[in-house]
Amino acid sequence: MGDEYSIKIRDLTDDEFFFGHKGCGGCGGSLAVRLALKVLGPRTFAVLPAGCMSAVGFIFPQMAFAVNAMISTFPGTASMLSGIAAGAKALGLKEYQVVGFAGDGGTADIGLQALSGAIDRNDPIMYICYDNEAYMNTGIQKSGLTPYGARTTTTPAGQTGAGSRTTKKNMFEIVAAHKIPYAATASVGHVPDLLRKINKAKSVQGTSYIHVLAPCPTGWEYEPSATLEIARNAVASGMWYLAEYENDGFSLNHDPGEFFPLRDYLSAQGRFKHVNSDAIKKIQWERDRQWNKIRRDWKR
Amino acid sequence: MSKKLFLSGNEATAWGAKLSRPHVIAAYPITPQTVVVEKLAEMVSTGSLNAEYLHVESEHSALSAMMGASAIGARTFTATSSQGLVYMAECLHYASGGRFPIVMMNANRSLALPWSIYGDQRDSLSLLDCGWMQVYAEDAQESLDLVIQAYRIAEDVRVLTPVMINLDGFVLTHTYELVMIPDQEDVDAFLPPYANPNIMDLDHPRNLGFSSTPRDNMEFKYQQHMAVLCAKDIIGDVDAAFGERFGRHYGGLVSNYRTDDADCVLITLGSVAGTVRAVVDEMRKDGKAVGLCRLRYVRPFPEAEVAALSATGRTLGVLEKDISFGYEGTVYTNVNSALLKAGHASPVLNFIGGLGGRSITREDIRSIFENLLDAERQRAIDSVRFVNLGVATHGR
Question: What span, in angstroms and rounded, lies between the C-alpha atoms of B36 and B78?
Fold first, then answer.
């Protein structure tokens, strides 16, 4: 997978741009933000909507960002980025990055309109979705990216409830359908791949989108030390994939071959504890349908 | 050389924006504002205005983008109306709390339901508490001049608060008059470049738009309040300085007409003031001592100016294109508060008119003044009256 955009972890700067925040132990989202800022560097304008990272990082007077950063409205991540990009151009600023970090709800639900507009205009911004598969900041409610079967506080499991009845919206293919110059999926469990994609997005003329799976021990119900293992198993089990979209085509970066057992991936997380074999069959069917398409149509 | 052009209120507003040299403009269409962003698009495309022009996908995004641009030191302009204004309501509060000195034009238009593209002032007045300064123009010339003044007021480091410039939909946005276009050099001399020390800066990174706990939050809100109060003096100073340079000034927070010896004064806002002024002149010829107080600003509220209208035996009326359902007109509530504090004892009546674009005619205003002149005798009558209403007003 090495190419001109690859970054070795040992070459990453020791400078920290996101620290001292109040995120949960094992938070996948904060790891994505921290790593991304190390690639983007100090001349960065970051926008974070209402959500976990803004809630833990901007509590006056303890500001957790060492780069320029501000909270946007919940729907307004992309539109605020567009304004910064337009202002920076008008003011003649040089050598800077404009990046947004929004959760799954802030991206796929309430923020989708503004994101679509920004991509349509091809505004020179980078949009990173840290996907922890529910509204975690408000206490684990279902979002458009909550997977089928997952228990949240608004999709309870119990005698009649069986967790989320909907599958994840495919944000990667939604942004690709806009003919965005560059989009990628990534995972906090595959750091070199994540770093390469952020580095590549830096060089894009126009809008770029990176969708990072970011497990959440609090909402997914596992031990904080297991975040990277869960993230890797999401990819190994085919429940997530590492891919890119550019020049009108999709490419797969990593084929796990024989999948890590789906049942083991699910049973490691309390949010799936209740799922029965019928639900697992449905999850597997959806996974296989997606992978049949990927393996048939996407470049390797 | 300054020149005269035959312009609509919308076009005059676009001229005011152009002369103020905004860095970024966000555009989203809505009747009856659309001409403003169309005119600005034309100015940008012909190169007469050098600005980034963002075709945003909603009014919410328009104001969100303006905040982003303002946060890094760019001067910003956008325009909206009615449904668009209330759609951006979240961003209105956000922009004032973030102390972004954005200038925005709002074409006053009725709010659905029922749908109506025609003018009233319920859109802006229902958002009176969103922390923005609100000013209401009477004519196209004032609209142009207000844009230039608004940037100087909003960007003053003692204020740093956004300004909403309101024009009555159609009655002002779409009617034409001769408008003096100031010289760009004069505007440049009057309006210095936007220089806010509290912006995101590549050399000195800052975190903005943060959260604050109950320990600090109230202090931020207090400072926001004090900044808008502080703007009262600055509005007057800027209007006076504008007058010195351009030969036109408007009186600051209010504009009074023949109030000094008046037995009754009608307080109103927006373009209907022109009709009221004409009726004042007519009735004065008949020997009736009536006067007009036009509220230019509703936030900050001209409390002292309204209190100064109070006089023994003088009746006062408030004519507004607004109603706070279940009570009275919001401007009336504000006026009464100021008058109460001033110890005003004579009747103060509320006239609700023009909702959904209904005309307020000379005859209507003459009738309002007759009501006011007779009010001392008619104390028992409802203080809130609807102008030119087509249904019975009694029998709940």
Answer: 9
